[in-house]
Design brief:
The chain is built from two helices and 24 strands. The protein has 334 residues and is mostly beta strands. It is globular. The N terminus and C terminus are likely disordered.
């Protein structure tokens, strides 16, 4: 399964990628790592961790301190620039800059971290330094208003944003060790409750969150761990990845693929692998500093489409557009 910015409830076709079914033959995948301290994004082979290239090299765009990575509904990669106060867009195949999607400081954006798209056609962005979540047009990047007001529900240092299976928005509140839940009334967000209470299960610095197999999974950055919570109540279940397992140090984002959980260690500049169900350490995918990786935050797994032999959308070329066509026709995962 290749994680995306969408929930499975809202985008059921996004829960599986099987290009081999339409194209014949085996399809590989790559993993992108946002090197915040190096202002770059490095691309690796997912099967062996070999460096492919600098997907985005330092200096090729105005990107400054890349943080979160998301695959947009148009098939492009969207990156939050924590220090450029903007959202940047890149071609998912080549890494070519496609311009600044959300302009620096638009709507008061300051220190953007998490971002998430919604099928109603908008994208939400965490404004970490102002304790707000802002709303933008999902096609043009035009500012539409404040989705969550400053400090609503005690929000302090918002990082990741996740749409839950209940249609609510879940926001990791980094500075007070909570995850907050907000309703969506068709225009903006309304505080519902503290879904994961302060420091529950040892939570310390919540960053990336994921709903998976009816469990809510949270990266606890400052305690170097990954924790599991009940997906309906937010009650602590157990530790998935114990503190510092395999040398894990200050993780922020995670990716799941084929039974493996991938985590990046920020100061160690590496990517580690764990069993997605038991949390057992499986080894190192990317060695420290491989490819020049410096201060990784966001991770994103992408399919490789070069081996696809079929022009599924009949546009005269084989590209990521054919993958999106396949996803659109894939159907429900139920």
């Amino acid at each position: 399964m290749i994680p995306t910015a969408f929930t499975l409830m809202m985008f059921p076709a996004a829960c599986a990628v099987a290009t081999s079914a339409a194209c014949g033959g085996e399809t590989g995948a790559t993993i992108l790592a946002a090197g915040g301290a190096g202002d770059h994004i490095v691309r690796y082979r997912l099967d062996d961790g070999e460096v492919i290239d600098h997907f985005v090299a330092d200096g090729v765009s105005s990107l400054d301190f890349p943080f979160a990575l998301q695959l947009g509904p148009d098939g492009n990669v969207y990156v939050s620039g924590w220090q450029s106060d903007a959202i940047h867009r890149f071609d998912a195949e080549t890494g070519e800059p496609l311009g600044t999607f959300i302009a620096p400081g638009s709507g008061g954006l300051d220190g953007p971290t998490g971002l998430v798209f919604h099928p109603d056609g908008f994208v939400l962005v965490s404004s970490n330094a102002t304790n707000r979540v802002l709303k933008y047009d999902g096609s043009t990047g035009t500012f539409l208003g404040t989705f969550i007001e400053p400090g609503s529900g005690g929000l302090n240092g918002p990082q990741d944003l996740t749409w839950g299976p209940d249609g609510h928005l879940y926001v990791s509140s980094y500075n007070n060790d909570q995850v907050l839940r907000y309703g969506y009334d068709g225009e903006s967000g309304t505080f519902i409750d503290v879904f994961v209470t302060e420091a529950s299960g040892g939570l310390d610095g919540p960053s990336h969150t994921v709903f998976r197999d009816e469990v809510f999974i949270v990266v606890s950055a400052r305690s170097d761990a990954v924790l599991k919570y009940e997906s309906r109540t937010g009650e602590f279940i157990e530790v998935l990845v114990p503190s510092a397992s395999g040398g894990l140090d200050y993780p922020h984002y995670m990716q799941f693929n084929d039974g493996i959980l991938y985590l990046a260690g920020t100061p160690n500049n590496n990517i580690l692998m764990y069993d997605a169900d038991s949390g057992s350490f499986l080894g190192q995918l990317v060695a420290p500093g491989s490819g020049g990786l410096d201060g990784p935050r966001g991770l994103l797994i992408l399919p490789v489409t070069e081996t696809c032999c079929e022009d599924l959308n009949f546009d005269g070329e084989v590209s990521i557009g054919d993958l999106l066509q396949l996803l659109a026709a894939w159907g429900s995962c139920d």
